Amino acid sequence: MKETWRFIDSGDCSPAYNMALDEALLDWHSKRLIPPTIRFYSWNPATLSIGYFQKVEKEVNLEKVQEYGLGFVRRPTGGRGVLHDKELTYSVIVSEDHPEMPATVTEAYRVISQGILEGFKDVGLDAYFSIPRTDEEKNALKNPRSAVCFDAPSWYELVVEGRKVAGSAQTRQKGVILQHGSIILDIDEDKLFDLFKYSSDRLRERMQKNFKNKAVAINALRKEPLSIDEAKKAFKRGFERGLNIELEPYTLTDEEEKVVNEIVKSRYENHEWNFRK
User: Which of 111, 117, 149, 207 does the annotation list as catalytic?
Assistant: First the structure.
């Protein structure tokens, strides 16, 4: 028997709402109010999200964020800055004690990411997990020099033709794993690199060139561009196959929406949360 998980497609939402709903789902699941859940969403406006531990003043060029008309939000998960623009964002909420979930973060990441791997195969891309082998690669994991998410290597990176195709971050709170990440359809590298501060123009140039060799968007690899709706169908099937589950569509109740909007106001729209440190 396949286990049934909940599936929520939130569509386009504000940055604060996107983070608040992920947090609410984690909380509800920790109280056993909802089954494990997979959610797909997009961002309106396009948004720069930064990791829980990042320092805004030091790393982010806020003038450019405003100039481009982008949203800005701090995630509850770690990791680096991500420009959410032409992408499908996913989140997975599941208990740490779920029988299929390994105890370590790294292994749980691999199991959850199997769903994304299957989604890439569904759209005709030969994705695979890259595992850091050399000491140099392992050290780079501990001390990423870059503020840009797709520039920093991680365990079980999803790659196509040697380049990173999805970026994910994980947090564990209240006995629940929340993993969310970006499946990039198209990427504007100049815009992305404009959003961060660099000690010199030369450094920026070098990092941007490096980035081209390390990361790639889905539509740069396909003859036919993939639409967001096609991506949703493919990755929904991917998660069902990769995690061996059935996904049952769900819409939030008015009561649940109210809770999410309270979290929006108290945290993710709050200046102190987004700009602290």
Answer: 149
